[in-house]
Every structure is written in structure tokens, then in C-alpha cells.
Amino acid sequence: MSVCVRVREEVVKLGLCAAALVSVAVLLVLVGYIFFNGAGAINPAFLLESPYRFEHGGIFPQVVGTFFLVAVCLLFAVPLGLATAIYLAEYAADNLVTRSVRFFVECLAGIPSVVIGLFGLVFLVYFLGFGVSLLSGGLALGFMILPWTVRASEEAIKTVPYSYREASLALGVSKWQTIRGVVLRNAAPGIITGVLLGMGKAVGETAVVLLTAGSGLESFLPRSLSDPVGSLPVYIFMLATQGHTSAASSRAFGASLVLIAMFLLSSLFALLLRNRFVRRKRRKIW
Amino acid sequence: MSKIEVTGLSVFYGRGTVQALKEVSIKIEAKKVTALIGPSGCGKSTFLRSLNRMNDLVGAKTEGEVLVDGEDIYNGGTDVIQLRKRVGMVFQQPNPFPMSIYENVAYGPRVHARGWGNGKLKRRLDRVVEESLRRAALWPEVKDRLGESALKFSGGQQQRLCIARALAVNPEIILFDEPCSALDPVSTARVEELLRELKRDYTIVIVTHNMQQAARVSDFTAFFLLGELIEFGETTRIFEKPSDKRTEEYITGRFG
């Protein structure tokens, strides 16, 4: 290797290393900043009380509300998305109609969330009369993650080898039983990953719930699907844009910390669930 | 007595543009081994897969008549599920499910178990699994490892597991699609031995690339070429005095 080439190799390596360090640093500074500013706000009262007079009280209804919203969202989007994926991957003939459906699903994934929120406001809240509520918010979040659920599930289903299906069908097992017994079983890790990604998006989504679910400062827990519901992202948005005291900003950071923790915990849970499937599979592979 | 009677069977692929089989007629004897030989692309696998309608899955179009026990499986509203229970299949590549040995064998019976009492199910499955593994000559090797993944076993063991899995749904006919082409000679010998055992209870049709294998295991041999059945008869006769020149050229290794 000539000197020139060697120098170039070193320069490239150093440059790439520096880029990696900057990426990590950005993440660390961000999380560290939120932690230092938010940690002070976190105490049992903050976690277990309801907010009152704007920047007072705690965020209990917001934490529970976020949880409920994501639950409604997943209850809507996962069964529907999975069923769509099964249809597209296993039943639909490869023709113009199928390709169009797949194309529209892809397009849906590209719609900015505020537009989905607007649609939720006009269609769910006003037209269907669901009002600003848990139901409207959860469904609108469901619209948002539906394409991800469909796409990830379809990809996962398609990676299951054809020979498994063939073996099952040749035993006189019907197509649906084959899908249930062999295909979904082996596609489960991929499907769970897709749901996890969607859930992560839903937990932190602000625009959609701002327009459809509630004002963010609700001091009560929803008692039915038609009650408005507070959520952490909207609470953070309200305090950050309309609070001008240090108490407000500290609470916004505290709520951010809780939101991040919720996201990490749910990701961890989903990851463990997924690894259980993968490990079971890997044990079977070697 | 013939178990399967095929008359004028033609199969087309690719929206009828490619004809893979041309008016094949053949009678397959019950409880015998019938070997299908011929060069690659001669239609022998297509023929095999038309006997349990696996060709349907790739959109093949079929003309002619296939009678299994006198019943036409392509017309007259045959239940494909029931047909495939009666006509089992073992594939070229061992394809066990990524589950335990036990679950692999129990998979078929469990799905078909509707109506078995719930309490009895477990005991009946245990019995079916053991019996199927015994028939596939795999029981001694796996009886203490039923909970282990099927994918941990050797190719030959996996193929015998696939045979056990097929036996577990209690078929009458078993189709083998080049079952030994991915196996080493020792494993191949074990599968061949097994075939000789199985023909006491089952009607067997086997596609093979290996002419010695056809000569060793089969009672009848059918020679296919370019989608046509060239010659069919008792194996000893086909190998000793083939009546068609092309058969002779193929089995003496002049092409293929």
C-alpha cells in the first residue's frame, strides 16, 4: 500500500469514528439534559396525583391516558393489520388490485401525523360523533400505525419458507389451519417487532391525540371510551408552549422522562416477548 | 388390484402455455412400490404431484382422469383435504417444521383430531406419535429426545421424521419425491429399507433420479420423457428387456 492510500484509509476511518461519536454524543446530551431537568420534578406526588391549575399537581391521569390510548390503538390496528397482511400475503392473487392495495398501504405510511389527526377530528370526532375522546384518539392512532403493522406482518409472513406450507398442506391440513399452525407461528417474531415499532410511534405521538383525544391537562381518568383523555405528549406540549414558569418547564421535563421510561419499558417488554419466540426458534435451528 | 388408475392425464403450467404432461395413462398397483424415472424436466414430479393435487397450488391446469379407489379426484367434488389425508407425501428436501420431534409427528393428527375427547387426546397422540416413529424406524434413536427440535437431527433422520409425520395421518398411499437426493449413502440405504417395509401396508409411488435405487426398491417402473410416459412395466422387465429404444438408452446411461 502506498503512503497516500494508507493516509486516506486512516482519514476515512477517523472521520467515520468521529461521526459515530457525534451521534452518540447527541443522544447522550439529549437524554442527559432531560434527565437533569426532569429528575427534580419526579416524586410520588407527581406520579400519583392529578394536575390542577395548570402547572400544579401530578401526571397520573396522563400516564394512564397514554396507556389507554395505546391499548385502544393496538386493539384496533393489530387485528386489522394482521388480517390484512395475511390476506395480502397468502390469499390475494398477484394482480393489479393487490398491488394497488399494497401501494395505498405504503402511501398511508407516509401521511404526516397531523393530517391523520385532522382527519380524525373531522371524521371521528365530528362526523361519527365520537367527540374528543379516548375512542377517537385511539382509533386515530390506529390509523397512523396500521400501515406499519400491515407491512411488517406481511414481510414476516413472507419469510416463512414455502416448504413448511407445502408439508402442512400435504398432510391434508386446510389452508387456514396451515396459516395458524405453521405460518403465523414462525412469523411471530417479525410480527411482534412490527407491532413494537408501531407502539413506539403511538406512545410518543402528539399531533394526533392533540386533535382527537383531549386537552392534555385532564385531571380525571376516563370512565368510558367516550370520555376525553389526557396523555403525556399533549401535557408536555401544553406546558412547554403555554407555561412560562420554571415549575411548568420542570414538569414538562419530568413528564418527558416518564414518557421515555414508558417507551423503554414497553419496548423492553416487547423485545423480551419477541426473544422468547426467537430463542424457541433458534433452539430448534441448532 | 390397481389403487390408482390414470387415464389421458395432461397437465399445463403458466396459464396453459407449457404442457408438462401429455396424455399419460397408467395403473398403479396397491401395496407395491412404483418408481417414476426419467431425465430432469420429463414430468415425473408433475405426475407425482397430480396424484394428491399439489399441482393445484401452483395454478396448474389438469385434463384427464385420475381415479383413486375408483373415485375421480379431479371431478365430482372431491374434498382435497380428505384426498391429501389418504395420499401422503414426502419431499425432496427434508422439511420438518421448526418444532420438537413430538410436535412434528403430532401436528397432522392434532389438526384432524376434531371429535376426539379432550382427555383422551393426549394419550391418543402419544400413541400415534410412537407408532408412527416406530414405523419410520426412527423410534429407537429419538425416544428419549422427543422434546428436542427436529432441526437438530441429521438429514437422514429428518427425512425419516417426515415419513413418520406423513404416516401419522394414516394415509393409504405415500408419494415420495426424490426422497434420498439430499441424503448420504448410509441414510439412503435406511430409507430404502424402510420403503420395502412400508409397502406391506401402503401403496408407494417414488420419483427417483437414481436408476439403481429404482431397480432396488420398486416392483414397477415407469419411464417418462418430455412429458410422455414411454414405458411402464415390472421393474425387472424394464431393466432387463426394455421394449422401447429410448428406455434402453436411458437406463444404460446414454443420456439423462
Quick description:
By secondary structure, chain A is mainly α. Helix content of chain A is 78%, strand content 1%.
Q: Features of this protein?
A:
heterodimer; A: 286 residues; mainly alpha; MetI-like fold; 2 domains; two-stranded antiparallel sheet; 78% helix; globular; B: 256 residues; alpha/beta; Rossmann fold; four-stranded antiparallel β-sheet; 10 helices; 10 strands
In words, what does this structure look like?
The complex is a heterodimer of chains A (286) and B (256). By secondary structure, chain A is an all-alpha fold. Chain A has 2 domains: 3-40; 42-285, MetI-like (MetI-like fold). Chain A contains 11 helices and 2 strands. A two-stranded antiparallel ribbon of chain A has the order 1-2. Chain B is an alpha/beta fold and 256 residues long. Chain B has a domain at 2-99 and 171-251: Rossmann fold (3-Layer(aba) Sandwich). In chain B, the strands form 2 sheets. Chain B has a 6-stranded mixed sheet with strand order 6-7-8-3-9-10, sandwiched between helices. The relative contact order of chain B is 0.18. Chain A binds chain B through residues 161, 163-164, 166-174, 177, 181-182, 186, 281, 283-286, and chain B through 52, 54, 57, 81-86, 88-89, 91, 93, 95-100, 107-108, 111-112, 149-152, 162, 165-166, 169.
Average pLDDT reading of chain B: 91
Looking at CATH, the homologous superfamily of the largest domain in chain A is MetI-like
Instruction: Assign the CATH architecture of the largest domain in chain A.
Output: Orthogonal Bundle
Count of individual beta strands of chain B: 10
Could you give a short account of the major beta sheet of chain B? Answer: 6 strands, mixed
Number of strands of chain A: 2
Based on secondary structure, the structural category of chain A is mainly alpha
CATH superfamily of the domain at 2-99 and 171-251 in chain B: P-loop containing nucleotide triphosphate hydrolases
**Count of the separate structural domains of chain A:** 2
Q: Please write the string of helix (H) and strand (E) elements of chain A.
A: HHEEHHHHHHHHH
- Low-confidence runs of at least 5 consecutive residues of chain A: none
The CATH topology of the largest domain in chain A is MetI-like fold
Rounded radius of gyration of chain B (Å): 19 Å
Return the CATH class of the domain at 2-99 and 171-251 in chain B: Alpha Beta
The biggest chain-chain interface is: A-B, 21 and 31 residues
* Unreliable segments of 5+ consecutive residues of chain B: none
Shape of chain A: globular
Number of helices of chain A: 11
Oligomeric state of the chains in view: heterodimer
Integer-rounded radius of gyration of chain A: 23 Å
List SSEs of chain B in N-to-C order: EEEHEEHEHHHHEHEHEEHH
